[in-house]
Write a structure and sequence with these properties.
CNF1/YfiH-like putative cysteine hydrolases, globular, alpha+beta, six-stranded mixed beta sheet, 272 residues, 6 helices, single chain
Length: 272
């Protein structure tokens, strides 16, 4: 059975997928600990755009990439504007946004690649990180799915890009949803609830509890994936709520916007 696990490398705790690692995929989702950043970004903050000392952030990124034996010159980052645009990435984009936020891929919230040695990296503090792996076409992707990205079906756009760029068959693709805000904590207003139900009339993921409205972003994304053709047994859901677990992760909502970011990273390993 497919599963995710915690790993520890020189004190750095991160989440990974063993059977993807076995197939030559480097994948990790960082925790908030064992880094150089100080309060309120303590301590493994990966975000260059949140007001932290950039020297500390770059050091943190170097440390996390050392888990995979990769330098920042191999990492590609996107702007993450809460949109649904997807970029195809190859060696020409290597290093974009890795040490300087000004060089990120602009207007992009998801990336796909089939180029070994390129690490796709995105940053999170409640939004849902969605990892993709096509073992047949040897291609990977990462999507940043907050509520706006979910409404715009960014995971569907990512799948379609994999089909167009690599000839992927959707039934072959495996997906992992990493830590993000859960339905226990993601309270929304009635006007947004109505919009969600119009976009997803069959599976909105909206819950009413004691006259308060909550949205299960994970469930909505999973249902989009299944409707698109992803086999349910090829979806791994971490299920951890970042807002509940600020002992492990940053949470934009729980920490009222003044906090750091975790990194979600995935890439095809260069054969040795």
């Amino acid at each position: 059975m497919y599963k995710w696990i915690w790993e520890n490398y020189r004190g750095i705790q991160y989440i990974t997928i063993p059977h993807w690692l076995e197939q030559g995929i480097d994948i990790g989702f960082s925790s908030r600990h064992t880094g150089a950043s100080h309060h309120p970004f303590h301590s493994l903050n990966m975000g260059l755009h949140v007001g932290d000392n950039p020297i500390s952030v770059i050091r943190n990124r170097h440390e996390f990439m050392s888990v995979f034996g990769i330098g920042l010159e191999q990492v590609v980052c996107c702007q993450q504007v809460h949109g649904s645009s997807v970029a195809y990435v190859n060696r020409q984009q290597a290093g974009r946004g890795a040490e300087d936020y000004e060089t990120v891929l602009p207007g992009i919230d998801a990336m796909v690649t089939n180029t070994p040695g390129i690490m796709l990296a995105a940053f999170y503090a409640d939004c849902i990180p969605v990892f993709f792996f096509d073992p047949i076409k040897s291609a990977v992707a990462i999507a940043h799915s907050g509520w706006k990205g979910t409404m715009d079906k960014i995971v569907l756009n990512t799948l379609q890009t994999m089909v167009e760029e690599f000839g992927s068959d959707i039934v072959d693709i495996e997906v992992f949803l990493g830590p993000g805000i859960g339905p226990c904590c993601f309270q929304i207003q009635p006007d947004l609830s109505e919009k969600v139900s119009k976009v997803f009339p069959e599976f909105d993921g909206i819950m009413d509890r004691n006259r308060e409205i909550y949205w299960d972003l994970r469930l909505t994304n999973i249902n989009i994936l299944i409707e698109a053709g992803i086999k349910p047994d090829k979806i791994i859901d971490c299920g951890i709520c970042t807002s509940c677990r600020t002992d492990l992760f940053y949470s934009h909502r729980r920490e009222k916007g003044r906090t750091g970011r975790m990194m979600a990273a995935i890439g095809l390993r260069i054969p040795r």
